[in-house]
TrEMBL record:
Hydrolase recorded as keyword: yes
Entry keyword annotation includes Oxidoreductase: no
Keyword annotations of the record: Hydrolase
Protein name as annotated: Putative hydrolase of the HAD superfamily
Example of a GO MF term: hydrolase activity
Protein backbone atom coordinates (compact mmCIF):
# COMPACT_ATOMS: atom_id res chain seq x y z
CA UNK A 1 0.00 0.00 0.00
CA UNK A 2 1.26 3.45 -0.88
CA UNK A 3 -1.59 5.54 0.57
CA UNK A 4 -3.80 5.30 3.64
CA UNK A 5 -7.08 7.22 3.65
CA UNK A 6 -8.50 7.90 7.13
CA UNK A 7 -12.00 9.00 8.04
CA UNK A 8 -12.29 11.69 10.71
CA UNK A 9 -15.51 11.57 12.77
CA UNK A 10 -15.86 8.23 14.53
CA UNK A 11 -12.27 7.28 13.71
CA UNK A 12 -9.80 10.07 14.49
CA UNK A 13 -12.24 12.27 16.42
CA UNK A 14 -14.71 11.18 19.08
CA UNK A 15 -16.90 13.97 20.46
CA UNK A 16 -16.17 16.34 23.33
CA UNK A 17 -12.51 16.76 24.36
CA UNK A 18 -13.36 16.54 28.06
CA UNK A 19 -15.34 13.31 28.07
CA UNK A 20 -15.91 11.95 24.55
CA UNK A 21 -19.65 12.55 24.79
CA UNK A 22 -21.54 13.65 21.64
CA UNK A 23 -20.77 17.27 20.83
CA UNK A 24 -24.29 18.60 21.39
CA UNK A 25 -24.91 16.71 24.66
CA UNK A 26 -25.35 19.95 26.64
CA UNK A 27 -26.45 22.23 23.80
CA UNK A 28 -29.69 23.36 25.42
CA UNK A 29 -28.05 23.94 28.80
CA UNK A 30 -25.09 25.82 27.34
CA UNK A 31 -26.65 27.80 24.48
CA UNK A 32 -30.40 27.64 25.05
CA UNK A 33 -31.15 25.71 21.85
CA UNK A 34 -32.98 22.40 21.69
CA UNK A 35 -31.12 19.80 19.67
CA UNK A 36 -34.26 18.46 18.02
CA UNK A 37 -35.04 21.93 16.64
CA UNK A 38 -31.52 22.29 15.27
CA UNK A 39 -31.65 18.83 13.72
CA UNK A 40 -35.00 19.45 12.03
CA UNK A 41 -34.51 23.04 10.88
CA UNK A 42 -30.84 22.83 9.89
CA UNK A 43 -29.24 19.41 9.59
CA UNK A 44 -32.17 17.53 8.08
CA UNK A 45 -33.04 20.40 5.76
CA UNK A 46 -29.78 22.03 4.66
CA UNK A 47 -26.79 19.89 5.61
CA UNK A 48 -26.82 17.74 2.47
CA UNK A 49 -26.12 20.81 0.33
CA UNK A 50 -23.61 22.34 2.73
CA UNK A 51 -21.48 19.22 3.08
CA UNK A 52 -20.95 19.02 -0.70
CA UNK A 53 -20.19 22.71 -1.05
CA UNK A 54 -23.43 23.88 -2.65
CA UNK A 55 -24.22 26.19 0.25
CA UNK A 56 -22.01 28.02 2.74
CA UNK A 57 -22.33 27.09 6.39
CA UNK A 58 -22.57 30.41 8.22
CA UNK A 59 -25.15 32.26 6.07
CA UNK A 60 -27.53 29.31 6.06
CA UNK A 61 -27.08 28.66 9.78
CA UNK A 62 -27.64 32.36 10.51
CA UNK A 63 -30.95 32.29 8.67
CA UNK A 64 -32.08 29.18 10.53
CA UNK A 65 -31.09 30.54 13.94
CA UNK A 66 -32.96 33.77 13.27
CA UNK A 67 -36.10 31.63 13.22
CA UNK A 68 -35.47 29.05 15.95
CA UNK A 69 -32.98 30.76 18.31
CA UNK A 70 -32.74 34.51 17.62
CA UNK A 71 -30.65 35.00 20.76
CA UNK A 72 -27.85 32.88 19.30
CA UNK A 73 -25.38 33.87 16.57
CA UNK A 74 -24.10 31.44 13.97
CA UNK A 75 -20.51 32.29 14.92
CA UNK A 76 -21.13 31.32 18.54
CA UNK A 77 -22.76 28.03 17.61
CA UNK A 78 -20.05 27.16 15.07
CA UNK A 79 -17.31 27.79 17.64
CA UNK A 80 -19.17 25.66 20.19
CA UNK A 81 -19.72 22.90 17.61
CA UNK A 82 -16.15 22.68 16.40
CA UNK A 83 -14.57 22.91 19.85
CA UNK A 84 -16.89 20.23 21.25
CA UNK A 85 -16.19 17.81 18.40
CA UNK A 86 -12.42 17.57 18.57
CA UNK A 87 -11.35 14.76 20.91
CA UNK A 88 -8.42 13.14 19.09
CA UNK A 89 -7.50 9.46 19.13
CA UNK A 90 -3.88 9.88 20.19
CA UNK A 91 -3.07 6.18 19.81
CA UNK A 92 -4.15 6.22 16.19
CA UNK A 93 -2.14 9.39 15.57
CA UNK A 94 0.95 7.58 16.87
CA UNK A 95 0.29 4.72 14.46
CA UNK A 96 -0.14 7.14 11.58
CA UNK A 97 3.15 8.84 12.44
CA UNK A 98 4.98 5.51 12.28
CA UNK A 99 3.29 4.70 9.00
CA UNK A 100 4.30 8.00 7.42
CA UNK A 101 7.87 7.45 8.57
CA UNK A 102 7.83 4.20 6.61
CA UNK A 103 6.96 6.10 3.44
CA UNK A 104 3.17 5.66 3.27
CA UNK A 105 1.22 8.84 2.50
CA UNK A 106 -1.70 9.52 4.83
CA UNK A 107 -4.77 11.51 3.79
CA UNK A 108 -7.93 12.40 5.64
CA UNK A 109 -10.93 11.27 3.57
CA UNK A 110 -13.99 12.80 5.13
CA UNK A 111 -17.43 14.33 4.69
CA UNK A 112 -16.89 17.93 5.81
CA UNK A 113 -17.87 21.45 4.84
CA UNK A 114 -15.13 23.98 4.17
CA UNK A 115 -14.88 25.70 7.54
CA UNK A 116 -14.60 22.56 9.64
CA UNK A 117 -12.12 21.05 7.20
CA UNK A 118 -9.91 24.07 7.78
CA UNK A 119 -10.49 23.88 11.53
CA UNK A 120 -9.47 20.22 11.59
CA UNK A 121 -6.22 20.89 9.79
CA UNK A 122 -5.26 24.13 11.53
CA UNK A 123 -6.94 24.49 14.94
CA UNK A 124 -7.29 20.80 15.82
CA UNK A 125 -3.76 20.26 14.51
CA UNK A 126 -4.37 17.35 12.14
CA UNK A 127 -2.40 19.09 9.41
CA UNK A 128 0.78 18.16 11.29
CA UNK A 129 -0.15 14.45 11.20
CA UNK A 130 -1.29 13.89 7.60
CA UNK A 131 -0.20 14.75 4.10
CA UNK A 132 -3.49 16.40 3.10
CA UNK A 133 -7.26 16.40 3.57
CA UNK A 134 -9.68 15.21 0.90
CA UNK A 135 -13.21 16.26 1.80
CA UNK A 136 -16.70 16.32 0.37
CA UNK A 137 -17.30 20.05 0.04
CA UNK A 138 -14.12 20.45 -2.00
CA UNK A 139 -14.95 17.47 -4.23
CA UNK A 140 -18.66 18.24 -4.64
CA UNK A 141 -19.50 14.67 -3.63
CA UNK A 142 -19.76 12.86 -0.31
CA UNK A 143 -19.10 9.31 0.79
CA UNK A 144 -20.41 6.79 -0.13
CA UNK A 145 -20.85 8.27 -3.62
CA UNK A 146 -18.58 6.54 -6.18
CA UNK A 147 -17.57 10.02 -7.36
CA UNK A 148 -16.01 10.74 -3.97
CA UNK A 149 -13.73 7.72 -4.32
CA UNK A 150 -12.95 8.45 -7.96
CA UNK A 151 -11.91 12.02 -7.22
CA UNK A 152 -10.04 11.06 -4.04
CA UNK A 153 -8.07 8.48 -6.00
CA UNK A 154 -7.14 11.11 -8.55
CA UNK A 155 -6.00 13.44 -5.76
CA UNK A 156 -3.84 10.69 -4.25
CA UNK A 157 -2.17 10.07 -7.60
CA UNK A 158 -1.97 6.29 -7.29
CA UNK A 159 -4.10 3.40 -8.60
CA UNK A 160 -7.06 2.31 -6.44
CA UNK A 161 -5.29 -0.93 -5.54
CA UNK A 162 -2.53 1.04 -3.81
CA UNK A 163 -4.97 2.73 -1.42
CA UNK A 164 -6.08 1.47 2.01
CA UNK A 165 -8.94 3.05 3.92
CA UNK A 166 -10.45 3.02 7.42
CA UNK A 167 -13.92 4.35 8.20
CA UNK A 168 -16.53 3.61 10.86
CA UNK A 169 -19.47 3.44 8.42
CA UNK A 170 -20.22 0.15 6.66
CA UNK A 171 -21.69 1.88 3.58
CA UNK A 172 -18.48 3.83 3.05
CA UNK A 173 -16.35 0.72 3.42
CA UNK A 174 -18.43 -1.16 0.85
CA UNK A 175 -18.29 1.74 -1.60
CA UNK A 176 -14.51 1.97 -1.22
CA UNK A 177 -14.11 -1.75 -1.85
CA UNK A 178 -16.32 -1.50 -4.93
CA UNK A 179 -13.92 1.12 -6.25
CA UNK A 180 -10.90 -1.09 -5.61
CA UNK A 181 -9.59 0.31 -2.34
CA UNK A 182 -8.50 -2.01 0.48
CA UNK A 183 -10.97 -0.94 3.16
CA UNK A 184 -11.65 -1.95 6.76
CA UNK A 185 -14.37 -0.82 9.12
CA UNK A 186 -13.02 0.94 12.21
CA UNK A 187 -14.44 0.02 15.61
CA UNK A 188 -13.82 1.28 19.13
CA UNK A 189 -10.50 0.07 20.47
CA UNK A 190 -9.19 -0.98 17.07
CA UNK A 191 -5.56 -0.65 16.01
CA UNK A 192 -4.34 0.12 12.54
CA UNK A 193 -2.35 -3.09 12.31
CA UNK A 194 -5.35 -5.09 13.46
CA UNK A 195 -7.79 -3.44 11.08
CA UNK A 196 -5.43 -3.55 8.10
CA UNK A 197 -2.89 -6.36 8.58
CA UNK A 198 -0.90 -5.12 5.58
CA UNK A 199 0.26 -2.30 7.88
CA UNK A 200 0.68 -4.44 10.97
CA UNK A 201 4.47 -4.69 10.83
CA UNK A 202 4.94 -1.01 10.19
CA UNK A 203 2.39 0.62 12.49
Amino acid sequence: MKVLMVDVDGVLIHGRPADGQPLFTYLERDLGLRLDLLQQAFFQTHWSDIVIGREALEPRLSAVLAEIAPHLSAATLIDYWFENDSRLDLNLLEELAALRQSGVAVFLATNQEHRRARYLMEEAGLGAHVDDIIYSAALGHRKPSPDFFRLATARAGVPPGDIAFIDDMADNIEAARQFGWHAAQWTAGATLGGALPVFGKRA
